[in-house]
Each structure stands twice: as structure tokens, then as C-alpha cells.
Amino acid sequence: MIRALTGYATRSPWKVIALWAVLGIALTVLGQALVFRATQASSGAFLPAGYDSAAALRVAERHFGARPDANPSTVLVARSDGEPLTADDERHIDAGAAKLTRRPVVMPRSEDALPFARDHSQRPVVAAAMTAPDRGFRLLSVELTGNPTDPGMQDLYRAFREQARAEFAEAGLRTGFTGGLADTVDSADAGKTRTTVVGIVMLLVIVLLHVLVFRSFLAALLPLLAVSVIGGAAAGAVVGSAVLAGIDLDPSTPQLINVVLVGIGIDYFLFLLFRFREQLRDRPEQSGRVAAREVAGRVGTAITSAALTIVAAFSTLGVATFGQFRVLGPAIAVAVLVMLVGSLTLMPAILAVTGRRMFWPSRGLKGRPREGAAARVGDLVAGRPLRVVFASVALLGALAAGLAGMRMDYGQGGGDGERTAATETAAEIAGALPAGVSDPTGVYVTASDGGVLAPERLGGLVEALRAVDGVGQVAPIVLSEDRKAARVDLFPTADPRRPEVRDLVSGPIRDTVAAHRPAGTEAHVGGTAAVFADISEAVDEDLRVVFPVAAALIALILLVLLRSLLAPAVLMVSVGLGFAATLGASALVFQHGLGRTGVDFTLPLVLFLFVVALGTDYNILIADRIREEMERPGPARAAVARAVRHTAPAIATAGLVLAASFGSLAVGPGSATRQIGFATALGILLSAFVLSIALVPALAALLGWSIWWPLRPRGAAVRAEPEPSPAPTPTPTPTPTPAERRVGSNEPRSRVG
Predict the structure, then answer these.
(1) Which range has the worst mean pLDDT, 37-51, 484-498, 696-710, 718-732?
(2) What is the pLDDT of residue 525?
(3) Which of 237, 466, 484, 571 is the most buried (most CB within 10 A)?
(4) How many other CB atoms are found less than 10 A from the CB of residue 41?
(5) Distance from C-alpha of 640 to C-alpha of 697, rounded to nearest angstrom
(6) Which of 592, 559, 435 is nearest to 504 (CA)?
């Protein structure tokens, strides 16, 4: 199947390129046009129905008209001269709120708007909330509906903000905006320039790495072009499938898909490019099309196994209870499958068309290059494997020590991000009122006995909630129109995103509600803090299920690929050490170093999948090459040295490219995104330079042919001299270097490590 795809691609390269160009452009436009219809920004919407906060959300929608796509924000209105508000000021503010509610906000139309873009024009819901005790300001609640990550929705909010400012400025009043959509827009505006610069720098780094390695313009630009075409098609396929199936994606999913596809796509192209160059050097008489067919057929097996490892790992998220994970996994799996098909068709077709011109103007195809750092590393790893193993394990163990005392942070940053106008407004509010005023915790009570609710019936519950330590204020009871449900808003004294508020909601508040709810009623606790309290429980459950299932599937793929029991065990142990070291290093940096509450709650699971799955790519590449070299006659350690010499440059370059791709997230907006970017980039670097170039080959050198137990490579039965005769393989056996002669000689063991 693999050779059939690569063979057709190299026989009819222009047809394949044309087909991908059409698919890439069409699906890219489709994906960009529909992406905001396919995403859901509400974390609570991803919780299973059985969780308490999910039940509270259903009550709010059924009895109080709440909408899952609603974006509540808070507007602070104060006198421009800093004096306390007067009664006339309050009347002006309430009258202004009524005007804003009656006045529709029209979404600005942009010339570069995508087709099928949704028009978010609407009438905002604006209502007076409360006045600060010192009368320094009055708060208004605002609700706009729509996807807050949609640029059109953000433009609508900006238009409303200007209307509100103009309305109150006429009366000598100033305004501030915070919460929900205001936070999202301010963060996007603050990081817009930085995001653009980081994206440009990342592309320049990738191009520069290719230029330095291949000394060629085509080899630097064509991988990016090919990956962009395939990645656009993959993202469009995922978004289109989600819209057709009615599945909501998390807003971070498209961004993660793009990062993953850029990284692994360039990795796969690099694997092909390095082997293609090696083939052209060894067979100067061979045409580029024939060389492309042979290389794609050989490397395609390793690429397929690596891609299927990622697919298997992320597919396990389909069994997660938390919807954000359950959707993320299959989405990335589908995208990687599309990238795999592109790697087996479009990339070989490009190699077949360009041939030796791919490496112009480099003269690297003329003659065998001198031994460089890769050969010295291969000599060291194969010659002194025990020392390399000890050094690698010591480094990984030191980083893994950061796991001691590691905590999870479910607060999405808890306000530890950069300072914006929205955070400054929130700080001003918190100086006079409980911090939870702009994002209350709601207690929803419904009559289950067929009766109606009255404030007197809920008096005992309200008094008990007022007595809970950490609740700063309790709002008046709000009854639904049919009096079958009631809402009691609680204002915690701390930011609802902080872990202490999450613990307050999951413990004392829910315990109080359960103990004091009136007979014949049901009660549920909702709001941001309640949602994250339930998410923490769901994620803990998912971690216990996904980790072993993903590990088992990856191990099964390695068993099938490597046809060995011991080699997969070696690879799994090494990636396990890499995962522990990466997570420990993240805790050292963010929790212990920067003083964060803990590492983001999504980090262990996302990191496990990315580092184990993507890191296994490099292990598969080096293991496959070690097996290929061991099938030649000659000592096992000489085979390891050759494998490292040929494969280390590809792994090192691919690791740097993938780390740069993920590293771009480390300087983006949001604490969670920064942690994922930093940790994944570090994990990829450890996987490439420590595991795949050092630890795994060193273990292979120590174990020798027994690493392939119970089977053995064909060449293992032949004990040849260090200068083996040419083996009947597709490529001729090169003359061993002096380093290989030292590694493969019969010197005493003390001389070779």
C-alpha cells in the first residue's frame, strides 16, 4: 500500500501536485470560513451532563433564558473628576443603559472578510447591577451573544464599547470594561503584534535551518510550501467534518492542529530530503525520479509508523469524559492522517519533479562529505554506550525531580497574564467590592415537588450561604417567570479563577447547598469556579484511563513495526523518561520558579500525547535505521555508529524545527498556551537530542543484536571483519570510516567502553 502510493506519486508527479494544489486551496478557504462556526468557547459546554455545574447550566438555559454562546461582561461607570456618584449620576447611568439596550450594534464589515462569515449585529442586553459602597462607580452587566474568538464578534464588541463610551462621556462619565469578551479582546489586541512577529520569526528560523543544512533555496522553501498546502487541506477537512457532524471544537484546537501539522509535516519532508540526498550521493548515475521512488518507498514505512503512532495516541482521547479532550484527540488524528497521505504522495512527487535541482546551488551531491559532528557522536555513542546511558538518565532524572510537589492549576491562569485595560478595571472593582462581582457563582434551585418557589422558602439557604467563609456577598433572590426556579448569586472574595475559589465551590458552598436546600427542591451550583471544579474531577478521571490506553496502542504499533519484544520496551521506557523529565522541568519553571499556582491542568495529558507520540517519531526513525544497518554484515556497534551518523542530522534538524513550531506558543497569549508551548518544545528537544541521538542508540550498542529478540536481523548471523563486503541492499555499503573501524574492531572491551 505504501509503495503503491509513493510509486504512483513519483510516476505521475504533476497530476499529484495539481490535485493537492486544488484540494489545498479549496479546503483552506473552507476551513478559514467555517472555523468560527465549528468552535465553542464555553468550557462548561464540554462537561458531561452528570456534573453539577452542567446541570446548573441546563437550569439557567431552561428557566432564565441563558444562552451557551452568551458573553457576559461588566461595564464600570464613574465620574471623570473622581468624585462620588450623585443620585442624578445614577439616573444618567441607568438611562444610558436603557438607550444602549434599545440601540442595535452593527458589526463593522471588513473588506478582507471571509465568505460565509457570520453577521453578529445585535441588540446588547445592558442592565444596572450595583453601586460601590463608597459610590465611586456603578456597574452595568452586558451580554453579547456569539463566538468570542471570532474576529467579527470582537469587532462587534469594539463597536459597542465605542457606543458606550460616547453615551456616558456626554454626561461627564468615564467607562471601564472587564470580564468575558472584554478580557478576550484586550488580550488579543495586546498580543496581536507579538503574535505576528513570532510567526514571522518562526518561519525565518525554519528557512534558515534548511538553508544551513542543505545550502539550497528550494530545499528551504519547498517543504514549507508543501506543508502549508497539506496543512490547509487537513485543517479544512477537520473543520468541515465538525460542522457537518454538528460537533463543537474548542477554540484552541485549530491553533494546535496548525502547530502540529507544521512541525510533523516538515519533519517528514526532512526525513525524505536527507535520505534522498544520501541516495543521490551513493548513486550518481540514478535519475531523480527513480531515487525519489526508492527513498519514498523505504522512508515511507517509518513515516507511516510514526504518523500512526500519533494517530493512535490522540485517538485514545475519544474515550475521555471531558468533551474538550474527546474532540481534540480525533481532530488531531484526522489532521495527521491527511498529513500522512500528503507525505506519501505530494512530497515524493515534488522530489521526483525537482530531482537533483532540489539541492541547487549546493555542491554537496558531488562526492562524499567529510566526517562531521554526526560521525563523532556516532563514534562516542557506539564506543562508550554505558557512559552515554548514565549521563542521559542522570540528566532526565534531575529534570524529573521537579515532579515532587507538583500541583494542577485549573484556573486558566488566575489572572497572572499581562496587564490590560480589562485587568485594570477588574482591579478597580475588586478594591471596593468582592472580586467575584464580575463573575458570580450561581446557586440554582428548582421545585421538584410540583410547587412554586418564594423568597421565604429559600431564606434558610441564603442565610447559610452568607455564613460561608470566603463568600463576600449574596445577591437578592431572582425567581423565574413561572416561579419554578430561583437563582442566588454569590460573590466570592477572590477571583473566581483562583484555585481557592474552586476549592470553596467544590467544598463548603456545595456542602452548604446540599444541607440547607428546602425540602422538595433540587439545587445545583454553577459559574466559572464550579465549572473548573468539575473539570478538575473529569480530567483526573481521564488521566487514569487515557495514559495506559495510549501507551498500550503505541507499544502495539512499535511491536508490529520493529518485529521485536525488547526494542519496543526500550523505546517506551526512554519516552517515559522523557515525559517525566519534561513535566518535571515545566513544574520547576512555572510552579517553583515563576511562582504560579501549579501547572495548567491540560498540560500532563497534552504533553504526554505530544512528547510520547511525536518523540516516538524520532525513536522510530533511529531504530528503523539501526535495524537496517544491522542487516548488513559486520559488528553491531559499527552498525549503530553508521545509523547515528546518517540519521542524527535529520533528527536534530527536525527536532529544532518542531521545537521552534511549538515554541512559538510559549510567547503567545494565555498562561495555559505558554506552558504548553514551552513544555512541548522542551520535550521535543529532549526526545531528539537526548533520547533518539544518545540514549536509544547507546542502549542498542549495549544490547547488540539481542535488542531485536526474539528475531534477529539478517546480517546478525554473519561475523565479518570491520571492512564488510558490499551487501545485496538497494544502496552500496560505504567504506567504513576510521571511527567505525575503532568501534567495530576486536579491541578489548575497556578500550570501547
Answers:
(1) 718-732
(2) 94
(3) 571
(4) 22
(5) 6
(6) 435
Task: List helix spans (H) across 283-384.
Answer: 288-315, 323-354, 373-383
Q: From 310, 289, 352, 296, select the one nearest 554 (Cα to Cα).
A: 310
Q: Is 306 left (phi over 0), alpha (psi -120 to 50) or beta?
A: alpha
Give the separation between CA 102 and CA 125, rounded to whole angstroms. Answer: 9
Does residue 462 contact residue 481 with C-beta atoms inside 8 Å? Answer: no
Closest CA to 431 of 141, 184, 86, 176: 176
Q: CA-to-CA distance for 586 and 604, rounded, in angstroms?
A: 10
- Partners of residue 442 on adjacent β-strands: 489, 526
Helix (H) or strand (E) holding 557: helix 528-562
**Which helix (H) or strand (E) covers residue 83, if one does?**
none
Please tell me what DSSP assigns to residue 368: P
- What is the identity of the amino acid at 466? R
Proportion of the chain above pLDDT 90, given as a percent: 27
Angle at 470 between CA 465 and CA 474, to 5 degrees: 40
**Hey, which of 316-330, 447-461, 509-523, 587-601 has the most confident mean pLDDT?**
509-523
Question: Cα 472 from chain centroid?
Answer: 37
Alpha helices by DSSP H, listed for 563-635, are 566-586, 603-630
Cα 32 to Cα 19, 36, 334: the distances in Å are: 20, 8, 17
Cβ–Cβ < 8 Å for 381, 296: no
Question: C-alpha 468: how far from its chain's center?
Answer: 38
CA end-to-end span of the chain: 43
pLDDT at position 740 over 50: no
